[in-house]
Amino acid sequence: MKFVHTGDLHIGKIVNGFSMIEDQRYILKQVYEISRREKADALVLAGDIYDRAIPPADAVVLFNDFLTDMVRAGIPVLMISGNHDSPERLGFADAILEEEGIYIAGVYKEELKKVEIADTYGNVSFVLMPFVKPASVGAKTSGEAVGNMLSMEKGGKEDNIDKDDMDKDNTNKEGEDGIRRVLVTHYFVTDQGREPELSDGETTIHVGGLDNVEASLFDGFDYVALGHIHKPQKIGEREVYYAGAPLAYSFSEAGQEKGINLIEMGKKGEVTMRRIPLKPLHEMRRIRGKLQELMQPEVVGAAQVEDYIRAELTDEEELIDPIGTLRSVYPNVMQILLTKNERKESMDYISRPEEKKKSIPQLFLGFYEMIRGEKPDEGRMKVVEEAAKEAEAKEVEGMDV
Asked: Which neighbouring-strand residues pair with 115?
């Protein structure tokens, strides 16, 4: 058995005002080509198919084209809804699509959808667990929700076991029946409290561990295909993996190699995972220096000019339309950071009781340094001192009246 694991496609995403549709089309073509080249028995998409609950029309068209290619190639696609998806919209026509090898777990319907695919060693059972808000399954936390859904799954399995078979051969216990099981889900999974590595592109908010799902809940599965976190990583010592997003969606992911997980399963207990890299249409890249330095031909020519760029400008003087200037040679500049402004923002200015004891010129001096990042010149200080003396004189006159 061989299958491809990916997720967090976020089709239709806009990053810093740039539509990622063409980038996503480019990367999905690679996923399709890898699946064909490796003769995969299935493609697993672990949630966040779209970037929002109501995806734009071009996102739906792109995903439709991708699924059509997969069906024509004869490769089954197994997918679940993530926290960014609308379960009902993603699961539209799911029963009909199963006839073409497209298996969708959008809305949770009190039991987990299971898909069995046969190979030389028997069946591999794929259990599809979509993202579900805890309250909808009578739980207070995500961990409790996952535990509830898995316990119902195990309970249902036990109900279907023939008692005579149990008497003949006690091999129907979880993990002892020789059936290989793969769980596909979309949660914030931790290992004994250790959290996965995040990037700036993550939009999940974690409050007091309520979103945490312990990996130990997945005991009994031979492989767990996770979505939700954009950086590929293994969680703990079990075969529990985030494949990561196939594209970088923030500059914190710049330089991070994206790819897919290729899983090969032999007989029970034999699982190997191999990363296959993906090449983006545009890299996300940071450049740093003075504006004129970054415009030099040797600097511009050092990498692809059409990369998505975050420019960190170190100029101290005022710049006129720096983003327009940069885009004359770097057309896909997404962000500009003026480092002198960053320094100003990082300076702490805290009002303390001692501030009340300072004179007006001293207060002005501190405020000016906080805002401008430098001391005022003598001329400015002289004006402030004279204004302060004049104000103090008027205050004394007022008290004498």
From this structure: 126
What would the mean pLDDT of 243-272 be, rounded to a whole number?
Answer: 95
Structure-block tokens of residue 80: 């679940």
CB atoms within 10 A of CB 80: 31
Report the DSSP beta bridge partners of residue 78.
44, 103
Q: Domain 2-277 falls in which CATH fold?
A: Purple Acid Phosphatase; chain A, domain 2 (3.60.21)
The single residue listed with the structure tokens 């089709």 is 11
Average pLDDT, the chain: 87
The two tokens of residue 17 are: 């005002």
Query: Which among 238, 193, 195, 188 is positioned nearest to 213, based on CA atoms?
Result: 188
Parallel, antiparallel or unpaired: strands 333-338 and 308-313: parallel
- Alpha-carbon span 236 to 225, nearest angstrom: 14
* C-alpha to C-alpha distance for 135 and 142, rounded to whole angstroms: 9
- Global pTM? 0.79
pLDDT at residue 369 above 90?
no
Whether 394 has a pLDDT exceeding 90, the answer reads no
What are the start and end residues of each CATH 3.60.21.10 domain in the chain? 2-277
pLDDT, tens digit, for every residue of 316-339? 999 999 999 999 999 999 999 998
